[in-house]
Design a protein that fits this description.
- It is a single chain.
- By secondary structure, the chain is of the alpha/beta class.
- It folds into two domains: 138 residues, 2-Layer Sandwich (Transcription Regulator spoIIAA); 114 residues, Aldolase class I (TIM Barrel, Alpha-Beta Barrel).
- 33% of the residues lie in helices and 21% in strands.
- The strands form two sheets. It has an eight-stranded mixed sheet with strand order 1-2-3-4-5-6-9-11.
- α1 links the parallel β2 and β3.
- α1 runs parallel beside α2 and α2 runs parallel beside α3.
- It is globular, with a radius of gyration of 18 Å.
- The two termini are 20 Å apart.
């Protein structure tokens, strides 16, 4: 499913409440630094088109127009969420768009939080890092503690991307981040993608203890996936993982 507008929704998010989406990627096309086997937008190759990225001015105008309309209708979004057709931080004006969005939010929807859903592949860039520090919910992906599973499940464009480097960069936020992790089962390309096993979960928890996020969001498949041989993790498995983290003092949300 690809989004066909710069601003979409509001939708009821399992994790964020009433969410107004902001898509900085091509309209009805996909641009991402990962090619996750579970992505609701499909594989990157299936989302190629000639659409351009929306400009900074177009994003600001579209958001302002939508918030004014919602204000007139008496609808209050809980959150303004950068998501859409791929990785939002790939937009060359991402940092400036965050500044614009904060100002627009403060004017028309001061009660709303700003969230960014990112795969964390660009947080080594100073402009992206500083921009993410300014939002209310800096939500960054960490689906596994294993390099082999990172390549299998998330399929980053850069084969040099590794868990050690990701962890080092995530720790730089000094707790001002939310870690989001999907747990799933099944197979892809003949290999098991199951990241719910005891040893793998234990390794992932060790990384969470290092990164020290203010919150952890764990979830499983909810929509159609591009890889057709994936399976949901059970709610009981998710709750067991969540309990382990809660016992260590972390705030954890579960979406099964």
């Amino acid at each position: 499913m690809l989004f066909q507008d710069i601003i979409f929704g509001p939708i009821k998010s399992r994790r964020l409440g009433v969410s107004l989406g902001i898509n900085l990627l091509p309209i009805n096309g996909k641009l991402c630094s990962f090619d996750c086997i579970y992505c609701e937008c499909g594989f990157n190759a299936d989302g190629k088109n000639s659409s351009k990225l929306p400009s900074r001015a177009e994003v600001k105008e579209a958001l302002e127009k939508k918030l004014i309309s919602m204000q007139q209708e008496g609808i209050k979004p809980d959150v303004l969420t950068f998501a859409g057709n791929g990785e939002p931080t790939l937009h060359p004006d991402f940092a400036e768009i965050i500044e614009d969005t904060i100002a627009t939010r403060d004017k028309y929807a001061p009660f709303s939080k700003i969230s960014v859903l990112s795969n964390a592949s660009t947080i080594h860039k100073d402009s992206v890092f500083e921009a993410l520090k300014k939002v209310d919910n800096n939500i960054l992906k960490l689906d596994t503690a294993l390099d082999s599973k990172l390549q299998l499940i998330d399929q980053p464009n850069s084969k040099e991307l590794n868990i050690k480097e990701l962890t080092k960069n995530l720790k730089k936020f000094e707790g001002k981040l939310i870690i989001q992790t999907i747990f799933l089962k099944g197979r892809h390309l003949g290999q098991s993608v199951d990241n719910t096993g005891a040893q793998e979960v234990e390794a992932w928890i060790k990384l969470i203890l290092e990164i020290k996020p203010k919150q952890v969001m764990i979830y499983t498949i909810d929509r159609e996936t591009p890889s057709k041989t994936l399976e949901k993790a059970s709610l009981s498995e998710l709750e067991k993982i969540a309990k382990t983290l809660r016992d260590k003092g972390f705030e954890v949300s579960v979406a099964g």
